[in-house]
Structures are given as C-alpha cells and as structure tokens.
C-alpha cells in the first residue's frame, strides 16, 4: 500500500492539471498557429508564459496508480491495477476477461 501522503499529492496534481489545462492548451495553440503567424518576439513572449504556470500542473507529472494499492509501477491501463494485484485477481478468477496462460 502506498503512503497516503503520496496518493493525496497525486490527487492534488490532478486537480492542478485540470485547472490549468485550458490555459496551457491555448498558449501552445497560439504558439503553433499557422493561420495568423506571430513574429518571433511574440512567440518568445508566449513561450515565457508557459514556465510561469505551476510545475505540478504539467500533464507529464501525473502518474497512473493502482486502484487498490496506489502503486505507481507496473500498471495495466485496461484494468487500472498493478501487476501483482492483477495476477492475484486472475488466479482467484475475479477478473472475467483475463485468463491464466498455460502451455
């Protein structure tokens, strides 16, 4: 089980990312827009605004966590579980779409 403080920190990052998502996307869209080309100085001003946003609002700082244990490593997106929890659940036949391999 992951520490509760780490899980809370991750939830805080998710809220920040949602809060600043539209701002970040609009800045990036303005920088990349080819419809109304910006001068080089205008683009640099736009790029200077991006780092002024909070660091934890960047989507790359988010981690997928296991739904049951909160573990960050070896997560399967389809199930939302970490590898060892997924394995245990498959062995106990708790996941209907997963089967053990045998050869």
UniProtKB/TrEMBL annotation:
Protein's cellular compartments:
Plastid
Q: What's a single GO MF annotation on this record?
A: structural constituent of ribosome
Q: What is its main location?
A: plastid
Q: SUPFAM superfamilies from the entry?
A: Glucocorticoid receptor-like (DNA-binding domain)
Q: Which HAMAP family match?
A: Ribosomal_uS14_1 (MF_00537)
| Keyword Protein biosynthesis carried by entry | no
* Protein family membership: Belongs to the universal ribosomal protein uS14 family.
GO aspect biological process, one term: translation
Q: Which InterPro entries match?
A: Ribosomal_uS14, Ribosomal_uS14_bac/plastid, Ribosomal_uS14_CS
Q: Where is this region: Disordered?
A: 34-57
**UniProt-listed Gene3D superfamilies:** 1.10.287.1480
User: Can the keyword Hydrolase be found in this entry's annotation?
Assistant: no
Q: Name one GO cellular component term.
A: small ribosomal subunit
What UniProt keywords are attached to this protein's entry? Answer: Plastid, Ribonucleoprotein, Ribosomal protein
Name recorded for this polypeptide: Small ribosomal subunit protein uS14c
